[in-house]
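Field notebook, page 591. I keep forgetting to write these up properly, so this time I am using the form the group agreed on. The chain and the ligand, lycopene, are recorded exactly as supplied. Prediction of the bound pose follows.
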Amino acid sequence: MPLLLSPLAARSLHAPLLPASAASAPQPYRLRSLGGEPRGGSRGRLAVVSEKQAAAVVTEKTLAGEGSDEGARYDAIVVGSGIGGLVAATQLAAKGARVLVLEKYIIPGGSSGYYRRDGFTFDVGSSVMFGFSEKGNLNLITRALEAVGCKMEVIPDPSTVHFHLPGDLSVLVHREYNDFVKELINKFPHEKEGILKFYGICWKIFNSLNSLELKSLEEPLYLFGQFFKKPLECLTLAYYLPQNAGDIARKFIKDQQLLSFIDAECFIVSTVNALQTPMINASMVLCDRHFGGINYPVGGVGGIAVSLANGLVEKGSEIRYRANVTNVILEHGKAVGVRLSNGKEFFAKTVISNATRWDTFGKLVKIEELPEEEKNFQKNYVKAPSFLSIHLGVKASVLPAGTDCHHFLLEDDWSSLENPYGSIFLSIPTVLDPSLAPEGHHILHIFTTAGIEDWEGLPRKDYEQKKELVANEIIRRLEKKLFPGLKDSIVLKEVGSPKTHRRFLARNDGTYGPMPRGKPKGLLAMPFNTTSIDGLYCVGDSCFPGQGVIAVAFSGVMCAHRVAADIDLEQRSPILDTGLLGVLRWFRTLA
Ligand SMILES: NC(=O)c1ccc[n+]([C@@H]2O[C@H](COP(=O)([O-])OP(=O)(O)OC[C@H]3O[C@@H](n4cnc5c(N)ncnc54)[C@H](O)[C@@H]3O)[C@@H](O)[C@H]2O)c1
Ligand SMILES: CC(C)=CCC/C(C)=C/C=C/C(C)=C/C=C/C(C)=C/C=C/C=C(C)/C=C/C=C(C)/C=C/C=C(\C)CCC=C(C)C
């Protein structure tokens, strides 16, 4: 069997994309300039950023130790360049702030990064992109790029996901809402009314969200302004804020298999069942996939972060790589800067951490006792498991004609849904963008939930063997259910464990993000961006509204607005601030 393991594959899933590899086989990200003069391009034309240019972002003066600005004072330092951190940074830069982003790794993006092997371009994480359309107010990825003058070419996905579930239940989530509900009602004709009511409430919430101008819910002038302009919509959102999707589904639906299907719908975006998934988040994803649709960026998901990083620099701010922040520097209890592992220090009016809250308060902030707010967060949320990921290059002939791009597989037993290795996520982005693989080949990105505890303490050889064993079993399951001959069609295989995610994404235990410890009160307990340390903010998936690229993009928008108000780049009212922040803190303790 022609299984080619690249020499680096055995070492890691995310082995660095070094400029050396960037010189070969350019696979351009397509990036359109909206205004201003793009790097190496001209106003308003379609500019193509080649791999070489993308790599240029991470060389020159961008490596941590190389810059000469130590001692300079920035408006904000952002620790980490995940989508959450980059959106916060670019939004601030667009408002005129001087921002420094410090990234531990050698390219931007975190879980939304990419890497290349033997002509294949792999997305590190999910390839299902919400918020990337031209419509409405919730297209937050499109808007984040626009804020720094970029626009990426996208390919519309005709479906979101094809579910293959116990009892041979197969449901394709079509892009068109009517096609989707028609298919679901066909499978569950006795639940027609319940289906229409449940998804109808999702639309009511989505339409309310979509009618608002999205900014910081921690900024009272904006929040009260929205209540004044859109009272019904705001009250709708306030009503559903503490509720979960599973409870609402149970009001209208009795069929156990259909309720389990809704669990699977929620699980793929929250890693928990519907009873634990906040209704606002469920509505957001269950409707955006039909409203704006799922759209894949030409050249791969990694292009989003590269574009944002380029846009940030275009706006006069900075990003440095291999910059491992080890400490947030506190002065009289206020965050004033950061220290790197090489001893260098940088100072700013504010510090924004895109590391998880467990990393921020467990490692970066050195204080004796965890603040009450963080204790409350840890009381309500635990770290969601990490993933085992398998990136495959396969011969195209193994996929039947018309294969859908995204699949979710749970074979025989609904009770395995949330178990480690129980269900399988699969994306085949080359169905949409063939340029990601050499001609005649496809990419299969397979992942399944896995805990770090399964992978720790193993001698190197056993660890490698275990990766092979577990990956082969997952491939066998896919071969049996979906693609006969899959194993023999593999030309490249890279396996990453939770340890890989911990190492290369700098995420505590490789976690996918926070997950409610029990049954949450919707989103009520989820902290926003301010923290109990003056001058220190958090952004990313351990902030409201949680996991997901579009979710962390929203947390970036909110964070930038609150920080901008605090450094006088936006309007603010100190008295109302104190009042609102106090009330919100109190709300969280009720959860
Ligand atoms: N696993 C997936 O399938 C997948 C894929 C894509 C996106 N996502 C979503 O992206 C979300 C995460 O996005 P995010 O913006 O919160 O963060 P992220 O984890 O993607 O990025 C955080 C970045 O911060 C950097 N970092 C962490 N600690 C640092 C330190 N001390 N010094 C310097 N840099 C440091 C990391 O290297 C990383 O690049 C997840 O919730 C997930 O939903 C997930
Ligand atoms: C202030 C207070 C308290 C109150 C007031 C009221 C109001 C006004 C409110 C408001 C609110 C708001 C605005 C909200 C918002 C929200 C939002 C935006 C949300 C969002 C969300 C999102 C999400 C969650 C998403 C997610 C996603 C994800 C996770 C994805 C993933 C994917 C994957 C993994 C894929 C799969 C794959 C396969 C199947 C292959």
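OBSERVATIONS:
- The two ends are 55 Å apart (CA to CA).
- The pocket of nicotinamide-adenine-dinucleotide (ligand 1) is lined by residues 79-85, 102-105, 110-112, 125-126, 323-325, 354-355, 359, 387, 505-507, 512-513, 540-541, 547-549, 552 (CB under 6 Å).
FOLLOW-UP: compare against the apo run.
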